[in-house]
Every structure is written in C-alpha cells, then in structure tokens.
Amino acid sequence: MEKTNGSSEYGFILVGFSDRPRLELVLFLVNFTLYSVAVLGNSTIILVCILDPRLHTPMYFFLANLSFLDLCFSTSCIPQMLVNLWGPDKTISYAGCAIQLFSFLCVGSVECILLAVMAYDRYAAVCKPLHYLVIMCPQLCLRLVAVAWGSGLVNAIVMSPLTMTLSRCGRRRVNHFLCEMPALIKMACVDASAVEMLAFSFAILIVLLPLALILVSYGYIAASVLKIKSAAGRLKAFNTCSSHLTVVSLFYGSIIYMYMQPGNSASQDQGKFLTLFYNLVTPMLNPLIYTLRNKEVKGALKKVLGRQPSSGCLCAEVRSPR
C-alpha cells in the first residue's frame, strides 16, 4: 500500500454510532449482556458435548463445532466494539483491522458451510436411518469439518489482502463499528468494482451454494417425513430438524441481505444493525434454540450439573441420534 494512504501508518477510526452518544451507551449495555450470554451459552454447549458420552454422535460433534465458531465469530470483533462504545477512543491499528477482517471472513465462511454439513447430517439421520452409522462415520465428520475450515481460510486469504490494500487516499474513518469488508471497500478512492465482483463470486460459492444444498437436503427430508404414517413419527422427525432450520433462517437471512447485493447497496445504518444481528444475536440465540428444543442436550446439561461425568473424546464414539 502506498504510504500516502495513511491508514497503514495511523490505523483506522471506527465511527460506529459516535454521532449518537446516548445510543452508544444503550448499545454498550445491550451488547455486553448479549455477548456474555453468547460466551456462556456456547461454552456450555461445547463442554456438555465433550463431557457427556451420550452426545458423542455426529450431530453433537457438529453442534460443538458450531458453538466454537459462534464464540470465535463474536470474539473477533465484539470486545473491540465494546471498548469503542465505552470511551472516546475509536481507533484501531492497521494490523488489528487486518486481523479482525481476516477472522471475520474466515469464521463466517466456515459457519455457512458447516450449516450445510449439518443439514446433510440431518438428511442421513432421517432419510437413511439404517445406514446412518456407515454414512456419518468419524472420518467423514472430520473431513467435512476440515473442508469447511479450508474453504473459509481460502476466502479470507484471498479477500483480506485485496480489501486492505485498496487505495484510500488518506481516508481513515470507517463508517462502522468493526473492520467489515463492505465498509472498507466503500472507503476506496479508486475503482473497486473488481474486488466487489470477486467478493460477490465468493459469496455465491460460500453462501448460496451451501444454502442450495441445505434446501435440497430438507426437500428430501420433507418428502420422507410425509411418508411417515404416524403423527408421533412425523413430530419426532420435525423436532429433529426444527432447531437447525431456525438457526439457518436467522444466519442466512442477514448474511444474504448483507453480502449478496452487488455494490453493497445496503445503507450504512442497516449494515451496522445487520452485522450486530448475525455477529452477536444469532450466536447468543443458537445455544438457547438447541437447548430448549432438544431433550438430549437438556438431559446432558442436568447430568453435568448434577454430578461429574466421565470424560471422553468428542466423536470418539459414534451412535445414531435418537
């Protein structure tokens, strides 16, 4: 980057909601509360999935990975945002901004693909119950998670340097509370259409393609559920998938609106609140959604709180989910 750019030498100023001090105070209190709940909830899910041998199944292996991703997703930017909301200093170093952008792109991409993997797991459990153990073996579980992480790393490795090295002609004010790609691209003083189109192309591969796989998986699941004659059987199959469908709707709805618009035409305030939603509200809700609607997780949580369980390696034992 050219030295005249200024941002590499002095860093960036995260404007956020600095023009509305009262709103900043409210956001600090709300975000601190939501972040604390998200950290506690997701950490609990991870510990329960590790400590209770009954949850050493593919479904809960992926759920533990989702909770870990949610922890990383929120922690990549919420602490910095809380610091900026609390005091007058809104600056972030160039290196800090680059790390934040890289983490945000990587973890967000991994989560998109992991949700598709979880949909395939539900498809195997509902549509191929007799072959579930063979299909979702521990080796395949690990490979699918590795593919998700590899895809996220590729996206971050490509898009982060391209975004950070755009010439900004000394502009340092980011009209956001974190170093998010759309806000950084809008600061460029050169034609950034090539970077925007590349970001849009990655979004098709990392957002729309996994979403299409999720819809196909649930199409097959719906067809199988309709063939079940008993109402109890249909209800059980629905409960197996309803938590995942809720999480998918919350996460993908905001992500698609934010990233699937060429030129990122969402307004600045819309972008800020949407980012808050999928970066904080969704990670906070995920543990509640899976816990409140899942008897096995609630039972395991009571067992962990009631007495010390025997520890085991996650996914060391694979059984078909009930």
Automatic annotation (TrEMBL):
Gene3D superfamilies: Rhodopsin 7-helix transmembrane proteins
Subcellular location: Cell membrane
Organism superkingdom: Eukaryota
Pfam families linked: 7tm_4 (PF13853)
Domain G-protein coupled receptors family 1 profile: from-to ranges: 41-290
Principal location listed in the UniProt entry: membrane
High-level lineage: Eukaryota, Metazoa, Chordata, Craniata, Vertebrata
Organism expressing this protein natively: Suricata suricatta
MF term (GO), any: G protein-coupled receptor activity
Residue spans crossing the bilayer: 25-50, 62-86, 92-120, 132-158, 197-221, 242-260, 272-292
Name of the protein in question: Olfactory receptor
